[in-house]
Every structure is written in structure tokens, then in C-alpha cells.
Amino acid sequence: MLRSPEGAHASTPRGDLVSRFHLSERLLHWVIALLFGICMVTAAALYFDPFAALVGRRETVKALHVYAGLAIPAVLVAMSAGRWGRPFRDDAARLNRWTHHDRRWLRRLGRDSFVPQGKFNAGQKLNAAFTAGAIVLLVATGVVMRWFDPFPLWMRTGSTFVHDWTAFALLFTIAGHMRYAFRDPDALRSMVRGTISREWAARHAALWHLPPLEHRGTHGHPSPGPARGDDSDVEPSR
Amino acid sequence: MQTVPDERATPAEEQPAGTPVGRRVILSMLGLGALGLVAGPRLQDAFASSVSSDLASLLPSGGRFRIYTVVGFLPERSKDAYRLTVTGMVDRPLELTYAALTEMTPTSITADFQCVTGWRVPDVPWVGVRLADILDAAGVKQGAKALRFTSFDGVYTESLTLDQARRNDVIVAYSMEGGDISSPHGGPVRLYVAPMYGYKSIKWLDGIEVTDAVQPGYWEVRGYDVDAWVGASNRRSDAPIA
């Protein structure tokens, strides 16, 4: 599904590809996706009656859930550190910052007007922040639930409540994330191959200062690529 | 958590401009989470008691049973094939069929089912035979102190002291919510210990052994209290049942 016939890129010769996600980010993405998948499947086996009855083995399922869950922040921290983690940190910084474009983009949701966006649009920024917050909440409440002894009762009950609701909300946003990905195979493919067409970038991320085509080890020191104007009020070229 | 990339990392024109809304969203969520931690369970209870149980059951932690099994399958046994053995320190070891159980004096209890992990199903109607009646039928020998229960899942075990077992609200149940006890709920026959957390109410009950000392059960050797009184064990303080 992620693979496309070679012909698919006929209209975008290799020179027209730009680097969207560095190898370190793609690896991080798919490791986290796998861990999240384990968490969700095991959660279902702990939580939904028919599935719980089918799977059973409560002790094992519980351990899998707990350790896959704890691995998510561990992997995030480990893989965002140092030189290797810089591309991810750069993107995190992009996701954190909002400009007037982002506010306009959100206000115009559902209306067919075009608001130019940087590498990430306001929806992606919101989703990223929500996901980060959800991870913190899930880990904190999960720890209380698993190692409950030192915590007072109200905190344990409250943790269960927060854990359940946060997980449900996160399930919805991840489902939305996947829906957008499958609707845009080029974007999805860029999380596998790292590159995306210049044409796509112009359409979806007009204000993104495109990096040059990814070659090994040069991420931190981009050669002067084609400048795309400054970050203010460039209108998309279409 | 947030690292601002230095000049080498991004070209100058890509220095992140704008306000750190992402960070604010995260902090707001943590605040909301803290609020949920304190007020959430109360909100949920209030909501659950104001809507039908069907609606409440759709919500996280809403008023229905969660099916736990410690083995990798759902034990199944027909009523015809079912046998309950009573062995150990008794005058007359018994092997009771399902029919034999239902012919004994029935006892009905309607009470909450409270799990030690927090969920509670309110007002579950149970029908069964008082454990005390079964013990009397077998005749408990002098010096006996406790019971050890086994399950036909082959793994789970439980325990009660004789005094606990003789309470009126401890039954060997063969009916719940007006019908048979289904396999996921531990049928055809399970124990129901009303005043204790759910893990004492062993599912798929097939053996009662009268012993001279309490032998901790499956979860009890894994850290749960042997005397699992609701509201007074496992460091929980749920409202007592019944």
C-alpha cells in the first residue's frame, strides 16, 4: 500500500523532490506507531468485554501494555537527543510556533479560501500538541494505575478516569491522522521515503522554506537551496 | 521538552516565528488532566446515575462488567457436564451436579459487584445456594479453618475462612440478572462473595476443598489482600456493599 509503481513519479522527476522527513524522524514515527498500536490492541484486550474474553491472559497483556506505553516517552526522548535527533527537534519547534496564518487557517476551516501554510498547517500543529499532551497524561496516569501503592485512592480512581478519556480522545485523533494520510498517498509515502514533490510542497506548504533534496548526513547544513522568499505574506504560486 | 534550534540547524529565515501555542496547548491539557483527576470520577458517577445504564455502559468505566480471565481462553462447560466437588476435611465428600445445586434451597441476593480496580456494577441480582448450606451437607470436620476454591479454567484459585464462607451473603451462584450465568461471567456456576471485591468471587467454580489453613488465591499471591472486604482492604475505601 505504501509502495507505488515506479511510474507514479513520472510527473515529478527526481530533481523535483524535496526532503520532508529525515530518516531519524521516519524511524521515530514508525517505532512510535508500532508501540502505539501495541498499546491500543492490548488496551482493547484489557477493556472491551468480547475481546478481553477472547484474548484472556490478563497478566501478560497488562505487562505488554504497560511496557509498550512506557517505551513511547523513552523512545521519544532517546531519539530526539543529540545530532541524530535534530531534524525532529527542528520540526517540533516548527509545530510549536503559531503565526497569524495559523489562526486564519483555523478560522477558515471548512471554507474554501486558501491560507498559505509553512511546513505544517495549523491542524497538524494542533494535533501534534494534543498528542504530546496526551502522551504526558497517559504516562503519568498509567504509572499511578500500575504502581498504585503509594498513591491515595482518589488519585487512582481519578487516574483511571483521565487515562480512559485521554486514550479515547487520542484514538480519535490518531484515526483522523491516519485518514488524512491515506487520503494523501504522497504525504504518506513521504513518511516512508522521506521525500515529497516540490509541487506538493507548493500546494500544501507554500511558506515552507524548502530544504534541498536529502542527501546523507547533510541535514544540519543545508546547501543554499532555492530560496522561497521570506516567511511573511507570500501568496502561493498557483 | 522544547528545544529552539540554533542557527546552524535552520536557515535564519526559518527561525520559528510566532507564539508558542503548541506549548500552551500542552500545558492546558495538563491542567485539564489535573482537573479530571480530581473531579472526573464524581462527574462520571453523576452522569451515570442520571442516564440509562445502556448509555452509561458506552462510556469509559461505565457501569458494566468487564470480563477478566487469567487464561488464554474462555472456559466452557455445559450444565449437564458440570460437577462441583466438595473435598478435604469433610465427613461426606460431595459431587454435585448442576441439577442437584438448583434443587437446594435457593438464596437471592441483589448487590453491587465491585472490582478492586475500580469498576462497579450496581444492583446485580444473583441466585444460588448459600455456601453454608453446601458445607453443612458435606459436614465440616473439627479443626477445619478455611476453604480453597478451584476453577475449571485450571489456573485460578481462591480462598475464604470458614467464618467468611458461612455468611448469608456468600453463595454458589447459578443465576444472574434473571438468567443463566454465561461463560464470560463464570457460568454455569461461580461463587459470589457479596461483601468482598470481585476477585474473591471465583468464576467457573468446580472444586471446594476444606482445609486447616487459608491458602492465598491467584491474585493474592500477586499482592492483593486475602481478606478482600469492599472498602476495607487493598487500600481502597469504596462504599461497603449490601
Summarize this structure briefly.
Chain A is built from 9 helices and 2 strands, in the order βααααααααβα. Chain A is mainly alpha-helical and 238 residues long. Chain A has a two-stranded antiparallel sheet with strand order 1-2.
List the helices and strands and how they pair.
The complex is a heterodimer of chains A (238) and B (242).
Chain A: E1 17-19, H1 23-47, H2 49-55, H3 58-79, H4 86-96, H5 100-107, H6 122-146, H7 153-183, H8 185-193, E2 195-197, H9 198-204
Helix pairs in contact in A: 1-2, 1-3, 3-6, 4-6, 6-7
Chain B: H1 21-50, H2 53-58, E1 83-88, E2 94-97, H3 98-103, E3 106-114, E4 120-130, H4 131-138, E5 146-151, E6 157-161, H5 162-165, E7 170-176, E8 179-180, E9 190-193, E10 205-211
Parallel strand pairs in B: 1-10
Antiparallel strand pairs in B: 1-2, 3-4, 4-7, 5-6, 5-10, 7-8, 7-9
What does this structure look like?
The complex is a heterodimer of chains A (238) and B (242). Chain A is elongated, with a radius of gyration of 20 Å. The longest helix of chain A is centred in the C-terminal third of the chain and has 31 residues, at 153-183. Chain A has a domain at 23-184: Fumarate Reductase Cytochrome B subunit. In chain A, helix 4 crosses helix 6 (122-146) and helix 6 (122-146) packs antiparallel against helix 7. The relative contact order of chain A is 0.14. Chain A has helices spanning 23-47, 49-55, 58-79, 86-96, 100-107, 122-146, 153-183, 185-193, 198-204; strands spanning 17-19, 195-197. Chain A has 238 residues and is mainly alpha-helical. Residues 1-12 and 214-238 of chain A have low confidence and may be disordered. Chain B is an alpha+beta fold. Chain B is built from five helices and ten strands, in the order ααββαββαββαββββ. In chain B, strands 2-1-10-5-6 form a five-stranded mixed beta sheet. In chain B, strands 3, 4, 7, 8 and 9 form a five-stranded antiparallel beta sheet that branches. The longest helix of chain B is centred in the N-terminal third of the chain and has 30 residues, at 21-50. The radius of gyration of chain B is 25 Å and the shape is elongated. The model of chain B is unreliable at 1-13 (pLDDT under 50). At the A-B interface, helix 2, helix 4, helix 6 and helix 7 of A face helix 1 of B.
